[in-house]
Amino acid sequence: MNSVTVRVPAKVNLQLAVGPLRDDGYHDLVNVFHAVSIFDEVTATAETGMRVRVEGDSAGQVPEDDDNLAIRAASALARHAGRSYGVSLLIRKSIPVAGGMAGGSADAAAALVACNELWGLGLPLADLLEIGADIGSDVPFALLGGTAVGTGRGERLTPLEVGGTFHWVFALAEGGLSTPAVYAECDRIREATGTEAAWPQTSEPLLDALRRGDAKALGAELANDLQPAAVMLRRSLARTLDAGREHGALGAIVSGSGPTCAFLADSETHAVELAAALRAEGVARDAVTAHGPVPGPAVGQRP
Ligand code: ATP
C-alpha cells in the first residue's frame, strides 16, 4: 500500500466546565465533545523522512514543520513501534485554524490512523488513544468521534448515547484565538471578580436532552465556562452570538476557546436560513452549516 487517506471531523463542546487551576498549570474539566460534519483530510504516502504540506484557504496559518501536530503524531507512532518509518503527509484543511474546533488535534488523530494503516502496524484503538493523549488532550476524542464526555484534562472519555441528529451553524471569525491565552484570561477574570471555580460536574439535563434527541432542550443547556474569556479577548463575539439568538437559534455558544461561534438550529432548513442571516448581517467572516454527531476518522485509500 502506497497511500492512505483519512477524513476526520471537527468538534464542538456542548458543555465545557472548567474547574480551578491545578498546581501543574492545567484545569480539571468536564468536556462534552460532539463531532460535526466539517472535515479535514489527511493523506499519508510512504516516503523516507517525515514531511508535511497543508492545502486550503487557511494553510498559511499552519506550520509545515515538526510543530505540525500531524507530524508529531506520526513521529510518536513510529517511536511507539520502535522503527524509523518515514511518511509524507498532505493535509487538506477545512476546519478553521485556532478556531476552537480542535482542527490540529483532528489532523493528529487522522495521521495516527493513516500511518497505522500505511505502515501495517495493526495497533488497536486503545494504543492510538494512549499515544494521542500525549500529543494533546483533544486528540483522544478526535480518534473516537460521535459524542462523548471527557474528564481530567478532557482525555478520559465515555461515549454518550444520542437519540437523533442535530443541525448546527458555525460562524467563522477572522483570525484565531490562542487556547492558552483564553484559559489565562478565564483565570484572570475569576481572580479579578473573586469567583471561586466550582468542581466541574456533567450536566444531567444536557445528557438527557442528548439521549432524547431534543434540540430545544439541548439548546437551553449548552454551556461554556471559557465563553466570558473568549468574548473579553474578542469583543465582537457578543454581537455575533446576539445575532444568532435574534434569528431563532435554540442555543448560541462560543465553540471551545473560540473564536468560532456555534448555533443550534431546529431543522436543516432553519440552519441554512440562520447561516444566510449571519452572513447578511456581516457578523462573521463566513457561516457554514453542519450536522452532528458524525463518526470519527474514516479511512479511504488513494492509488
Ligand atoms: P482546540 O479547540 O483544541 O483548543 P483550536 O481549534 O483552537 O484547538 P487548532 O486549529 O487545533 O486550534 O490549532 C492551534 C494552533 O496549533 C494553530 O495556531 C497552529 O499554529 C498549530 N497547529 C499545529 N498543527 C496544526 C494542524 N495540523 N492544524 C492546525 N493547526 C495546527
Describe the structure.
Helix content is about 35%, strand content about 30%. The protein is globular. The strands form 2 sheets. Strands 1, 2, 3, 4, 5, 6, 8 and 12 form an 8-stranded mixed beta sheet that branches. A 4-stranded antiparallel beta sheet has the order 9-10-7-11. It has about 300 residues and is of the alpha+beta class. It has helices spanning about 70-80, 105-120, 125-135, 140-145, 180-190, 205-210, 215-220, 225-235, 235-245, 270-280, and strands at about 5-20, 25-45, 50-55, 85-90, 145-150, 155-160, 165-170, 225, 250-255, 260-265, 285-290, 300. The chain is built from 10 helices and 12 strands. The model has no long low-confidence stretch (mean pLDDT about 95). Adenosine-5'-triphosphate binds near residues 63 and 176. Adenosine-5'-triphosphate binds near residues 68, 70, 107, 176 and 256.
% residues in beta strands:
25-35%
Small molecules (ligands, ions, cofactors) in the structure: adenosine-5'-triphosphate
Gyration radius over CA: 19 Å
Counting DSSP E segments of at least 2 residues, the number of strands comes to 12
| Category by helix and strand content | alpha+beta
Q: What is the residue-mean pLDDT, rounded to a whole number?
A: 95
| Helicity level | 25-40%
Question: Per the principal axes of the C-alpha atoms, what is the gross shape?
Answer: globular
Query: What is the straight-line distance between the termini?
Result: 8 Å
Question: How would a textbook summarize the main sheet?
Answer: 8 strands, mixed
Order of helices and strands: EEEHEHHHEEEHHHEHHEEHEE
Name the poorly predicted regions.
Answer: none
Query: What's the tally of helices?
Result: 10
